[in-house]
Design goal:
Blueprint lengths: L7 H32 L1 H30 L25 H24 L2
Helix pairs in contact: 1-2
Length: about 120
Amino acid sequence: MYRRLLTPAWVLLHLVVAALFVATFFLGHWQLTKAEAGGGPVNWSYALQWPLYGFMGLWFYTRMLRDELRRDPDADEPGSALVLYQRPRIDTTGDPELAAYNAHLAELNEKALGQRVNGGH
């Protein structure tokens, strides 16, 4: 189950998230030293915001991991999607021009679907 999270792409993402999480604390510390040196209220707010951003990013990342683990691994396989098709009904009770146009559209639809099935697209 957790094997999906050990692919090269996921491992790279784990490392990037860990590095960014640590970086937010370094940035918060940097802003704190500037604030203590008389930087003002903006530096004090950034000193608090940077770690908050790190925890927010970590929270979103854990949600992404949870969603990945709950996802059906076979959902991405080709041919797994179920496609249902129902022929459109052609209204012939009203305007004859509209009925002819609907019939023409249905014919074009049939040709397009036939090409997809026969052409393999």
